[in-house]
Amino acid sequence: MNVIEILDKKRLKQELSYDEIKYIFNGFLNGEVEDYQMSSLLMAIVLNGMTDEETFALTDVFINSGDILDLSSIQGIKVDKHSTGGIGDKTTLIVAPIVASLGVKICKMSGRGLGYTGGTIDKLESIPGFQVSLSDEEIIKQVNQIGIAITSQTKNLVPLDKKVYALRDVTATVESIPLIASSIMSKKIASGADKILIDIKVGSGALIKTEEDARHLSKLMIAIGRKYNREVRTLITDMNTPLGKAVGNSLEIVEAVSILKGNGQGSYLFDVCVELASNLVSMALGNSLAEARRMVINNINNGAAYRKFLEFVKWQKGNLAALPLSKKTVIIRSDRNGIIKKIDAAKMGILTFELGGQCAKQGDTIDYSVGVIIHKKIGDEVKVGHALCTIYLGDKNTYSNPLDAFEIV
Ligand code: URA
Hints:
Transferase, Pyrimidine Nucleoside Phosphorylase, Chain A, domain 3, Pyrimidine Nucleoside Phosphorylase, Chain A, domain 2, Aldehyde Oxidoreductase, domain 3, five-stranded parallel β-sheet, four-stranded antiparallel β-sheet, 15 helices, 12 strands, about 45% helix, globular, binds uracil
């Protein structure tokens, strides 16, 4: 087999075999295939696509590039959820304790934010003392005892995806349905859960921009799950507008706590969390979605979900009382009368990034105390001088005009 021949084949839109995919990707992992050769292949995949068989093969090569977490010593069905990412997406912090409070075991490996999209691990690390790195033994013990653990990815889980993703990030090759499907599903399958729920975000602040792409991604992920005997469900949810009122690490923890305490009923964030949690519960318990929804709402209203969150934070050594929130705030007011037509998710993400709330590259320092609280929602009427949002400032005082994120007509 020869790297140039494989690249040529993909350029000519011919289907690669399992062995060819394994050869070139494993060669990249062990340094025999150069970055520029892999970049060329990735761009050919972005432009020419992959057949389903090629996508299944790539997922398999990804999974077998590292460790596979064995969760068989956790009793019962284990569920996992994943969001394709977006601005203000704190659903894991809300959904995981809700389902655990109903006896459904959830063991979740989450990621950090990159660029202007946030990551669950950064949000959890804004809680002083919170431990995100647990050993396999600690994860298993914790899930057996309290039903929930959220950790950062262990070092050797799908190392090939880590290396390929870093290259995709700098070669404009992230936006490809087969590459996204194999990247996400390989990590979910290697993480060991029996049932997996994927929240596919669509819109200006998401990786996936159209409903059509979201449906294609959904089909592919479900088909990959079937190959590994994992039940996969997907929900397609909006990411044109930030999810909830808060964008920024500590601020999002505060909002998650508020939702778990039963506030925000009727808001889009509340409804999305209930839908996600209900799907996980019905997958694990085999009951109807309507029955699962009733159980979920009950455990929010009776405080069980919030108590589970506190238990989870305590187990992972976090001190919620010490959450850092900036005291330097600026209220941004409307400069016109009208109706709010749009609150741009991507612009809010960029703003939080500029304030220091996200890292530009792995390892950058994050200011957990900064961010934005949005006071209005789409369709609200505003007058000149009404508060649109509050900015929580850190040391960085150069940031885009927050008014640009609001379209008022
Ligand atoms: N998240 C991932 O883990 N992989 C992708 O390809 C896109 C989003």
